[in-house]
Amino acid sequence: MRLFVIGQEGQVARSLREVASRSGNIVFGFGARPDLDLLRPASIAKALADFRPDMVVNPAAYTAVDKAESEPDQAFALNRDGARTVAAAAADRGVPVIHLSTDYVFDGKKKQPYSETDTVGPQGVYGRSKLEGELAVAEANPKHIVLRTSWVYAPFGSNFVRTMLRLTAERDRLRVVDDQSGCPTYAPDIAGAIIAIAHKSVGSDWHSKYAGVTNIAGPDVRNHGVGSRRRSFRGPRSGAGALFRLTRSPLPIIPRRRRGRLIPACRAKGWKPCSAIAFDP
Ligand SMILES: NC(=O)c1ccc[n+]([C@@H]2O[C@H](COP(=O)([O-])OP(=O)(O)OC[C@H]3O[C@@H](n4cnc5c(N)ncnc54)[C@H](OP(=O)(O)O)[C@@H]3O)[C@@H](O)[C@H]2O)c1
């Protein structure tokens, strides 16, 4: 199986790169700037023509959530238009695309974790651009799996965990927002889930019932400390009580560490279910 990943140094892309050497029966290809740029459709088509993948994975995105409020054009160019270009290029070759999305497609007001069937309601530019990206991917390629994840962290890259570790080394006391909930998700677990999906959906031939949106998220946590209203956050998570939690599946797909979970059923409004992707524990 040949699997092509958009990006190389992002948290998810790099996690895939690190498992690539251990995934004997998958041949990985990676495309990153400057050779492959989401803003240059020809560079994506060329990369896929050169590599001839059986599946394309797209974790590349504009991920600066707060900055997106002042750079909406860039956010939409990457998260909607770039996502559509990747999905369409995969469709041109007749292969499925796995697209990464986010809990920011929701409004954060629900008291319970969000499932794939919940009504979306993004509150900011980033969330809107990612939601429009999901829809663009689905329109461009009938063979699509959208993985919604949240609070991604890894031993590398820019993430909350690494920021906290750095600050604890620098300061005696930390002030942290205490009015947000979320599901930190370990990027290497997302990589493991993507490989499981690739084996299932490509290895057994694509079936239309695989298409849809699926949550992949770690366990719930709540921050304790200073409310985000008292911080200078300008992004869509500002304000008290933001509850960005995704539901988890009781079905462990990564039993070794049990950090990542995947929802096998996905019947979000307007999406086809992909419950047929049953992952072997
Ligand atoms: N991080 C989170 O907490 C979080 C939460 C929920 C969902 N997600 C979603 O999960 C996915 C992966 O997130 P992540 O944390 O791995 O992201 P990340 O670490 O911020 O990496 C983003 C990747 O996008 C690439 N990229 C940016 N602009 C590009 C362009 N014009 N052309 C080609 N590649 C470009 C970057 O490439 P360079 O290396 O060249 O800069 C980088 O590899 C994204 O879709 C994100 O929206 C993330």
Can you offer a commentary on this structure?
The protein has 281 residues and is an alpha/beta fold. It has a single domain, classed as Rossmann fold (3-Layer(aba) Sandwich). 30% of the residues lie in helices and 16% in strands. Strands 2-1-3-4-5-9-12 form a 7-stranded mixed sheet, with helices on both faces. Strands 10-7-11 form a 3-stranded mixed sheet, with no helix packed on it. Strand 4, helix 4 (125-140) and strand 5 (144-149) form a beta-alpha-beta unit. The two termini are 21 Å apart. Residues 222-242 and 248-281 have low confidence and may be disordered. It binds NADP nicotinamide-adenine-dinucleotide phosphate. NADP nicotinamide-adenine-dinucleotide phosphate is lined by residues 7-13, 32-33, 36-39, 59-61, 63, 78, 100, 102, 130, 149-152, 157. NADP nicotinamide-adenine-dinucleotide phosphate (NAP) binds next to helix 1 and strand 4.
State the gist of this model:
This protein is of the alpha/beta class.
Write the layout of secondary structure elements.
Blueprint: E1 2-6, H1 11-20, E2 27-31, H2 41-51, E3 55-58, H3 72-92, E4 97-102, H4 125-140, E5 144-149, E6 152-153, H5 160-170, E7 180-182, E8 185-186, H6 187-201, E9 212-217, E10 221-222, E11 242-244, E12 261-262
Parallel strand pairs: 1-2, 1-3, 3-4, 4-5, 5-9, 6-8, 7-11
Antiparallel strand pairs: 7-10, 9-12
Helix pairs in contact: 1-6, 2-3, 3-4
The protein binds NADP nicotinamide-adenine-dinucleotide phosphate.
NADP nicotinamide-adenine-dinucleotide phosphate binds at residues 7-13, 32-33, 36-39, 59-61, 63, 78, 100, 102, 130, 149-152, 157.
